[in-house]
Specification:
By secondary structure, the protein is mostly helical. It has two domains: 36 residues, no CATH class; 81 residues. It contains four helices and no strands. It is rod-shaped and about 90 Å long.
């Protein structure tokens, strides 16, 4: 998709129409138009037309990518914590009264639960932060 995007953008030339300069009244300071510095406005428009994203240019790409990566890492971490709890439960059941193995299994369960709580806390903090950032407009 990226190759297709760059082929389309680079194949077309930016519009060469020039508008006459706008003169400001003598009482105000003229402000430069910075919406199309170095032709990036043209690239943004072409990207939006080809991709269907009508959001801010970098956030549309990197926001989705970061969201997918974070969700995958949180899912893997939570799954690993649950598997460790199951493994510790098996160790506890097969300890047959051996105090060292029982203590080790209990310790594993406690640390696995702590890890699961940390993963849930991180997930909550990230979602709250993302919600705040999206609603600051």
């Amino acid at each position: 998709m990226i190759d297709y995007f760059f082929q389309k953008v680079l194949a077309e030339t930016p519009p060469s129409t020039t508008t006459p300069p706008v003169t400001a009244p003598a009482t105000t300071t003229p402000v430069a138009d910075t919406s199309n510095i170095f032709g990036f406005g043209f690239i943004k428009d072409k990207y939006q037309a080809l991709s269907g994203y009508h959001d801010e240019f970098p956030r549309a790409i990197f926001g989705d990518l970061a969201d997918k990566i974070i969700n995958a890492l949180i899912g893997i971490s939570a799954s690993l914590a649950v598997l460790m709890i199951v493994w510790a439960g098996i160790q506890y059941l097969t300890a047959y009264g051996n105090e060292d193995k029982t203590a080790s299994a209990k310790k594993t369960i406690i640390w696995s639960l702590a890890g699961l709580a940390i993963v849930a806390l991180v997930y909550t903090i990230l979602n709250i932060t993302a919600w705040i950032i999206q609603n600051i407009k």
